Q: What sequence folds into this?
């Protein structure tokens, strides 16, 4: 990464009649490994490095990027961004919410440096999953597994004096298994992610986790019974609580979505000005406080400054059941007359930074998991999920259980085959009456933007107990 | 142009000199432009210039790949790649890259899409058409996207060639009310055939009809799928035709070769033809692309292969090689006998769905899934579009739905929109599928 060229690109932009300009350089050293049924299918290794110029001129935004590191290209790209900004011809001129320029460097430490881990060690660690599955006595029809590391260096400068350098090593893994018993199949996948070094890999205990999943799937095929549809209590494991927090709290609270900027792609929100829901409206029970927090150490969604140079902080989205604070970048914050809360992220130099979540979860409560279950006369414990989705206003959602058990008189009974909760955001969060104190995170890749940008996030959180919801 | 091809060939030669058994290199010089708009105004205009060379090589059946962004880095990258290959492990199923010398179809890429002047004008044309058709003020959002790529391929196994690929797409979603919207797309490989107003008019027409929706009812319905929603489903089904999806059990087509999976009326092909946004003369191994019929009058005929998976399945490559795995390019459903209007007349009580998103599987080998229709959802009564509905979900099974396709329209449209939902372009008709399971929130 040539910082001189980045600074030159900013100078080129500043020499034009602009209201704002920034240059963001992004370099990624990526190594990936893919296994099928424990055999190495492919090893992929690449360095991707480039920069973008974003300009506001005449109230329009122009963006241009390149991966050619020459001053000539920098000048061209700055010129293109300027031209595009001026071509917007907007009625409502765009501005960014005020922000002081920041000059800083930040980095994520590694206990065991990713660069020092040989390919042999990576292969051996990942292949261990298949060795463990082979000895589990569960019939596995197929597995795919992958491990990817990404060493990300960024350099951000803007016309307000910001100059921020950062370094984030990230590691991720993904395993997908198909179990075949009695002529039937069931499937599960697990994703793992961490900001830091290779030390994460052993902490994840992937072989143990996948063997557990394989046995659960076998039980779903051989022992599970369908639940009789009806209103009942539902205890959601951290994985289910996490996806619900992400989908029906995090996404609808993205201010760009609320303002309609994603209207054609990821959609709008059930929250909008003049509608039934806005800041101050109750959306859940008092037990529900949902935060989005990029500052969770070592988390998959960790960052100290966002991609507009704004300091990251914890955001309280739903506070004791009430809509509290939207996720903002500088563009959305200006439109709603507030300040950015550091939610602007981009996956690479060739993508604009847009409003994103980082790590979204329900804050823990006072109960143990056992206490949540003990107090249920009849219901389902949905520990993990398989199929899920939500509509584009983020109100009608569905989660289908993968590992699930019937609860009778406070005790776990037989496995339940694919129980389904299909309900609204309001009903889901209003039904929560208790939250566990133990929190477990899951890694995920959140999709948004056009062209699409999958950003690393944590979901997960505590377990939740929902009273009298319809389960089928 | 020849200079870039020579440099791409040099990478192949270098890798061979260093000991690689087989090498393929593909250089892409891409220019991509996009105008994003919402609330009837341009939010951002974007330009990407991307220069990259994808290199895949094998050494003693160890498969490794990289991407190089400057020819100056090529030597070091190739040395590093070989080093990785030598400490990697053997993949016994690696069957080599496509072999042979080929003459490729001449590219029909449209040079005008290399640097389109005033792209925002097309956006405003579509917004205007949406408003005109809706007959009222609508809030529209979407994108205009253009692509122009020069692609150079060289392989140690013989293929060598040059291709140019172009595309233009306008995607517009128009809201006539907060919960009443329509979505239209216009996708082409050249500017001459590109009519942005068509997409706007379709979005406006559906947005108008979608006004005052009520929450629909659960049940089993005969459903007419608009080309846009069918395109999303075709993308999923096409992905499942890849031999790789079959190998990893993420396909309903496992063990389905030669068996009936749909009625006679269903013929599905993969075809990166000249009209398509995915137009291309060769795949990522340099093998010429072609039309591949994978479901022929209801019978599953072939998986989509690269050279390696073809060897595993004892057949020939279908020209679907991606860098690592075989991939579909553009799914076509053959047209049927009925007109769109005749399809509607066949439905006494059913639904007309115009778009969907968030398709997710419980089990992709079995095909159990759900997806959430968005934009216009309509009740059909006695062959006519009646009440506008909302908040419904398809919760069904792919094989069951394929088996229940009852009629296919003559009219077809080339569709593609947002990468997360319908990333694979398709040529989609209207179809009538019987007994589709619909659920909703409780």
A:
């Amino acid at each position: 990464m040539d910082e001189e060229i980045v600074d030159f690109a900013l100078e080129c932009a500043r020499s034009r009649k602009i209201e704002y300009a920034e240059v963001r350089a992004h370099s990624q050293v990526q190594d990936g490994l893919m296994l099928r049924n424990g055999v190495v299918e492919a090893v992929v290794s690449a360095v991707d490095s480039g920069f973008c110029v974003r300009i506001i001129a005449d109230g329009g935004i122009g963006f241009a990027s390149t991966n050619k590191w020459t001053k000539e290209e920098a000048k061209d790209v700055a010129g293109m961004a300027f031209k595009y900004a001026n071509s917007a011809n907007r009625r409502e001129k765009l501005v960014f919410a005020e922000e002081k320029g920041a000059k800083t460097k930040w980095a994520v430490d590694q206990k065991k440096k990713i660069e020092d881990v040989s390919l042999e060690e990576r292969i051996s660690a990942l292949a261990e999953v298949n060795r463990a599955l082979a000895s589990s006595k569960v019939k596995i029809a197929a597995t795919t597994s992958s491990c990817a590391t990404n060493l990300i260096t960024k350099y951000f400068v803007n016309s307000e004096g910001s100059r921020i350098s950062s370094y984030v090593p990230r590691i991720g893994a993904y395993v997908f298994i198909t179990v075949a018993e009695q002529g039937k199949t069931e499937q599960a996948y697990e994703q793992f992610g961490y900001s830091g070094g290779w030390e994460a890999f052993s902490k994840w205990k992937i072989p143990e986790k996948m063997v557990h999943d394989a046995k659960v799937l076998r039980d779903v095929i051989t022992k599970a019974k369908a639940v009789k549809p009806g209103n009942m209590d539902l205890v959601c494991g951290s994985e289910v609580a996490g996806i619900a927090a992400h989908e029906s709290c995090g996404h609808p609270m993205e201010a760009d979505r609320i303002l309609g900027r994603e209207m054609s792609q990821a959609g709008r929100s059930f929250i909008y000005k003049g509608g039934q829901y806005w800041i101050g409206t109750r959306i859940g029970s008092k037990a529900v406080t949902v935060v989005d927090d990029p500052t969770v150490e070592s988390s998959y969604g960790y960052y100290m400054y966002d991609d507009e140079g704004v300091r990251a902080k914890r955001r309280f989205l739903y506070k004791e059941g009430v809509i509290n604070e939207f996720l903002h970048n500088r563009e959305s914050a200006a439109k709603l007359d507030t300040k950015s809360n550091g939610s602007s992220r981009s996956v690479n130099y060739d993508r604009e930074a847009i409003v994103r979540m980082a790590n979204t979860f329900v804050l823990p409560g006072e109960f143990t998991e056992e206490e949540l279950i003990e107090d249920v006369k009849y219901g389902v414990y949905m520990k993990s999920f398989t199929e899920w989705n939500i509509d584009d206003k983020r109100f009608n959602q569905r989660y289908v259980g993968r590992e699930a058990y019937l609860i009778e008189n406070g005790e776990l009974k037989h496995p339940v085959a694919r129980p389904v909760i299909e309900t609204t955001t309001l009903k889901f969060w209003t039904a929560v009456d208790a939250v566990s104190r133990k929190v477990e995170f899951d890694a995920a890749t959140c999709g948004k933007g056009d062209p699409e940008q999958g950003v690393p996030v944590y979901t997960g959180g505590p377990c939740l107990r929902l009273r009298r919801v319809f389960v089928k | 142009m020849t200079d870039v091809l020579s440099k791409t060939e040099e990478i192949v030669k270098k890798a061979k000199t260093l000991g690689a058994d087989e090498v393929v290199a593909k250089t892409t010089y891409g220019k991509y432009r996009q105008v994003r708009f919402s609330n009837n105004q341009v939010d951002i205009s974007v330009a990407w210039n991307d220069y990259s060379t994808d290199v895949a090589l094998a050494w003693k059946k160890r498969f490794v790949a990289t991407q190089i962004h400057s020819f100056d880095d090529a030597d070091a990258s190739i040395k590093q790649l070989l080093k990785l290959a030598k400490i990697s492990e053997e993949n016994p199923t690696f069957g080599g890259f496509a072999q042979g010398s080929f003459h490729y179809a001449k590219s029909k890429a449209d040079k005008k899409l290399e640097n389109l002047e005033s792209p925002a004008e097309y956006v405003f044309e579509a917004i205007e058409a949406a408003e005109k058709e809706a007959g009222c003020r609508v809030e529209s959002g979407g994108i205009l996207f253009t692509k122009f790529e020069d692609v150079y391929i060289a392989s140690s196994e013989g293929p060598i060639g040059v291709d140019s690929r172009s595309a233009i797409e306008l995607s517009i979603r128009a809201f006539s009310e907060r919960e009443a919207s329509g979505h239209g797309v216009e996708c082409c490989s050249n500017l001459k055939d590109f009519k942005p107003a068509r997409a706007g008019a379709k979005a406006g027409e559906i947005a108008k009809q979608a006004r005052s929706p009520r929450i629909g009812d659960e049940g089993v319905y005969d459903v007419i799928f608009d080309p846009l929603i069918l395109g999303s489903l075709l993308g999923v089904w096409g992905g499942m035709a890849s031999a790789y999806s079959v190998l990893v059990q993420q396909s309903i087509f496992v063990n389905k070769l030669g068996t009936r999976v749909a009625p006679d009326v269903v013929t599905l092909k993969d075809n990166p033809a000249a009209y398509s946004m995915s137009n291309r003369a060769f795949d990522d191994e340099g093998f010429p692309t072609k039309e591949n019929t994978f479901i022929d009058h209801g019978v599953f005929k072939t998986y989509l292969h690269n050279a390696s998976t073809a060897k595993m399945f004892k057949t020939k490559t279908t020209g679907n090689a991606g860098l690592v795995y075989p991939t579909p390019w553009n799914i076509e459903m053959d047209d049927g006998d009925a007109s769109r209007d005749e399809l509607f007349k066949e439905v006494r009580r059913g639904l007309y769905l115009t778009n969907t998103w968030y398709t997710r599987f419980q089990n992709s080998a079995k095909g159990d899934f759900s997806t959430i229709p968005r934009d216009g959802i309509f009740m059909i009564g006695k062959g006519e579009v009646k009440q506008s509905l909302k908040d419904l979900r398809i919760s069904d099974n792919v094989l069951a739905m394929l088996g229940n396709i009852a009629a296919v329209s003559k009219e077809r449209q080339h569709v593609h929109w947002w990468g997360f939902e319908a990333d694979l372009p398709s040529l989609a008709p209207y179809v009538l599928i019987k007994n589709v399971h619909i659920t909703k929130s409780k």
